[in-house]
Design a protein that fits this description.
Elements: H1 3-16, H2 20-33, H3 43-57, H4 64-74
């Protein structure tokens, strides 16, 4: 499918959407994906990433299986 055909399909779909929330989310997504300048993290985001990297370096991590088991316990499965 060509770019032009894809654009036409997307536009037709968008024209049928009546949900304001969905349209706002779609616009946010498109704005983010078409940004020209790099995304800048806030100080708290940078701090959280730094802390997470330190936890990884200390081995303070869980496997997906461990987390899945914990979630199952919370859900009383």
């Amino acid at each position: 499918m060509s770019t032009t055909e894809l654009k036409e399909r997307v536009l037709k779909k968008i024209e049928t959407i009546q949900d304001d929330y969905l349209l706002e989310e779609l616009l946010d997504f498109l704005d983010f994906e078409t940004m020209k300048e790099p995304f800048v993290l806030s100080k708290s985001q940078t701090s959280a990433i730094r802390e997470a990297k330190l936890q990884i370096a200390k081995g303070e991590v869980f496997t997906n299986a461990q987390i899945d088991d914990e979630i199952d316990q919370w859900l009383n499965k």
